[in-house]
Each structure stands twice: as structure tokens, then as C-alpha cells.
């Protein structure tokens, strides 16, 4: 059994027991979260999509991590103008506990 879930504007294919990184979700480690925006469900060969997929995906927040540093460098030649900025995107590791 698997489902395609929309989390923070991105689609993820999830199955029960799977662990994955998603864009930052509010909450602490150990908190339970529920995703109701399910786009597609496959239950032992029985497929339902769109409005017919009336399923909720339950997950547990495992940890929060930072991604790799992304550098934004701006420069104008012959002017002495240089700007170097960077940021690290926050990700949340979740473990899917159930699809019901």
C-alpha cells in the first residue's frame, strides 16, 4: 500500500514505515502529524485518485536537520561590488506510521 501526499507544496510517494525528509514542519521530535491532502492511493491493486482518495496519512516527527549551504554571490565587474550571502534550508525527518 502506498499513497502520494502533498506536503508543503511538494508531492511525496509514501508507504507505511518509511522515513523521509520533507520541508520544515512545525512541531518537536515525537509529535504526531496528519496529512489529509492525499492525491493518489494504491491499496493492494485498488487505485483511487483525486476526490476518491479519502485517506489520511499519519506520521511522527523524528528530527529536524539543515540542508547544504546554498551560496548567492552577486558581482558587478570593474565596480568593486561583491556580495556573498548563504542560507541553509530546514528539513524535517518524518516516519510514516499509518495510512488509513
UniProtKB/TrEMBL annotation:
SUPFAM superfamilies the record matches: L21p-like
Pfam annotation, one family: Ribosomal_L21p
GO cellular component labels: cytoplasm; ribonucleoprotein complex; ribosome
Keywords recorded for this protein, A-Z: Ribonucleoprotein, Ribosomal protein, RNA-binding, rRNA-binding
Alphabetical list of InterPro entries matching this protein: bL21-like, bL21-like_sf, Ribosomal_bL21, Ribosomal_bL21_CS
Any one Gene Ontology molecular-function term assigned to this protein's record: structural constituent of ribosome
Protein's GO biological process: translation
Membrane spanning stretches: none
Highest taxon of source: Bacteria
NCBIfam families: L21 (TIGR00061)
Alphabetized PANTHER family for the sequence: 50S RIBOSOMAL PROTEIN L21 (PTHR21349), LARGE RIBOSOMAL SUBUNIT PROTEIN BL21M (PTHR21349:SF0)
Protein family (similarity comment): Belongs to the bacterial ribosomal protein bL21 family.
Subunit structure: Part of the 50S ribosomal subunit. Contacts protein L20.
Function: This protein binds to 23S rRNA in the presence of protein L20.
Name of the featured protein: Large ribosomal subunit protein bL21
Amino acid at each position: 500500500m502506498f499513497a502520494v501526499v502533498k506536503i508543503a507544496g511538494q508531492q511525496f510517494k509514501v508507504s507505511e514505515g518509511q522515513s523521509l525528509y520533507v520541508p520544515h514542519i512545525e512541531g518537536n521530535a515525537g509529535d504526531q502529524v496528519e496529512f489529509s491532502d492525499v492525491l493518489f492511493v494504491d491499496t493492494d491493486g485498488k487505485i483511487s485518485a483525486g476526490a476518491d482518495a479519502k485517506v489520511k496519512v499519519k506520521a511522527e516527527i523524528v528530527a529536524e536537520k539543515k540542508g547544504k549551504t546554498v551560496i548567492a554571490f552577486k558581482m558587478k565587474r570593474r565596480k568593486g561590488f561583491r556580495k556573498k550571502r548563504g542560507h541553509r534550508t530546514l528539513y524535517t525527518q518524518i516516519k510514516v506510521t499509518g495510512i488509513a
